Amino acid sequence: xxxxxxxxxxxxxSAYPPASSFKPIVALAALNNGVVTEDSTIYCxxxxxxxxxxxNNWTKIPEGSINVKRAIARSCNTWFYQVAIKxxxxxxxxxxxxxxxxxxxxxxxxxxxxxxxPNDRWMLQNEKRRIxxxxxxxxxxxxxxxxxSPLQVAQGMAGIANGGILPKLHLIRxxxxxxxxxxxxxxxxxxxxxxxxYNAVExxxxxxxxxxxxxx
Length: 216
Fold this sequence. Notes:
40% of the residues lie in helices and 12% in strands. By secondary structure, it is an alpha+beta fold. Strands 1-4 form a two-stranded antiparallel sheet. The chain has a two-stranded antiparallel sheet with strand order 2-3. The radius of gyration is 19 Å and the shape is globular. The mean pLDDT is 96.
């Protein structure tokens, strides 16, 4: 009865905007589809106009011309707005689904949320319109109608880290008898093939590493 609901499983029962944790998925889709390369650069101002709306970066200082690794390291919103519109929502939202977004993980958990990965049908039912460029820009930075549980984000990161497959999640590592001997241990299993070029994955890995290791 505590108003803070301490027994509510927020890690898997609640859905939140995944925010900047979603950006590597957009970067990977853009690399995989050839919209950007490891070395190509895009000029990133402090804000860009999409239709009648202005979409801001998190800093008021222009980032200049940067490549994909720098965009990930700096979490540059204006890079992702532009690239997401070029690659299209189907590409990065489809990849997010292969990374487990928009569906339950399959763990034996009660009340797990599937989250929301919109498509045109969902948008027509809920927003009375199809996905527009403004929606695409918003979702490219993990905002808008996109929702995921913390468990889904962790699962997606495991898929990006692996690079080739989305691993099937397991709730326990192993079962032991009273003497500590392992009597059961689940073998690694595949949930989905990601279907992406591993060179693209390695570029995203480097950008994610640069978040905590590079200067600036």
